[in-house]
Model the fold of this input.
Amino acid sequence: MRTRIKELREEIDRINRELLGLLAERGRIAQEIGRIQTALGLPHYDPVREAEMLDYLTRENPGPFPNETIKHLFKEIFKASLTLEESEDQKAFLYSRKRHPEPTVVEAGPARFGAEKLVIAGPCSIESRAQMEETAAFLAKKGVKVLRGGAFKPRTSPYAFQGLGEEGLRIGRDAARRHGLAFVTEVMDTRDVEMVAEYADILQVGARNMQNFALLKEVGQAQKPVLLKRGMSATVEEWFYAAEYILAQGNDQVILVERGIRTFEKWTRNTLDLSGAVLAKQETHLPVVVDVTHAAGRTDLLAPLARAALAAGVDAVHVEVHPNPLVALSDNRQQLDFAGFERFLEAIRDLL
Ligand code: PEP
Ligand code: MN
Done:
């Protein structure tokens, strides 16, 4: 009797090996179907096809397993095949670390995003030559390499200060050049991309434009790095897809910025989604920045949030600094003055 069990178990082992081989073959064929579906833009999951296969299998079921068991087992196989097909897609995304395991380094002036820890700083809006000169001189002395400042401002009210436009770009660029800094500024309109690219070292796509697909395609064609802010109500996936739009145009110089998302919380302007920033580091090969200013909307949280972000592995922090925040023409409650920035820098220095 015992030898019979042994013989039968050997049979089972042989069948297991055959099943394994068949599963591998099935998996490879499913992957090939998946690749063709992806190329044709078709979905991988086809419920009608699944129902037909299950009907067929239960009709042909010779027993002894009941139909319910056969259905259950094959559904698991279908699910596993679908996962295979979808993970192939993930590999195909240009943003994906699976496709591009090495971190991308984005160079702008003296800054190397992804290869060193950086601070991006400067006023919310460019207001005057004196303001930018004073700020750039101060920041350069503090070791900052990237100067920010908006010349085209996305304001909630159409009657609020909209920015100085091209004159602002000139002021920002000149101040950055004089002090050896890279200059980053927002572009809001496809018609302005070429002009902004003449002045800026990095083009910023703001949160409100993260899904402005025409703008994403346009900056994707510019020969300049792009700082892509996450939309205030965008999922991490939507944010990555927005980056994909830029990468798909041939521009591989993309920097992702988590700047806080909208939640029910009122004590902060937005809610910093640190897990989103960490996901961006893990899932993509692009440099990741955390904008603590727009996330918090208040100056007392900036240093602790920046410390948390840097400790979590992001490449840079972004903070607004103004010579006299009280009279700033935008975001005047959240910008640091120079003394505040010095304290901020001291508080994060060990993580830079
Ligand atoms: C800004 O950087 O000044 C800005 C408007 O940011 P966001 O698009 O993140 O709101
Ligand atoms: Mn701002």
